[in-house]
Amino acid sequence: MVEVAYDRAAAVNYAETWALKRNPAYMDFEHSGGDCTNFASQCIYAGSKELNFTPLYGWFYLTASNRTPSWTGVEFLRNFLIGNKALGPYAQELPEEEAQPGDIVQLGNAQRFYHSPVVVKVENGEIFIAAHSVDVWMRPLSDYSYQRSRCLHILGVRKP
Looking at the domain 2-159, which fold is it? Predict the structure, then answer.
C-alpha cells in the first residue's frame, strides 16, 4: 500500500459542479433520509479516487443497493474515515476552525450529528460549504444553526 495526497482541489471542483444538481451516476437519497452524506462521499471520492470494498465496514458505492452504510450515513462516514487503516481516504477529527477545503464539517445537536456539508473555501476565518438535502454552494457555515460540530480532516489516501 502507498499513501498519496488527497486532491482537495478535485473535491472542491466536484462540489461546485454538483452542489445544485444531482450526478445521475448516484441515487438521490433526498427523500430517503437525506442526500448530504452521499454528496460528501462523492466529493471525497473525487479527491481520493480510491474506494474500500471491505464488506459492511468499508466505503464504496456501486449502486443504491450495493453500497456501504458509510457512503450515506453521517456517523458511519465519520467512523470509516477516522478508523480506516486500509485502502481509501482516512481522516482525523478536528475542531471546525481547523477545516480546509475538501474536508467535511459534520453538524449536530445534543443527541446526534445529522449533517455532512463539504468545506469549499475558508477565508478570514469563515468557512464556506456546499451541501445536498438543502442544496447550497458557497454558503457560510455561520448561516447554519447547530449545537456542535466536528471537522473530518482528510489526511491522505491509501492505494494498492
Answer: endopeptidase fold (from Nostoc punctiforme) (3.90.1720)
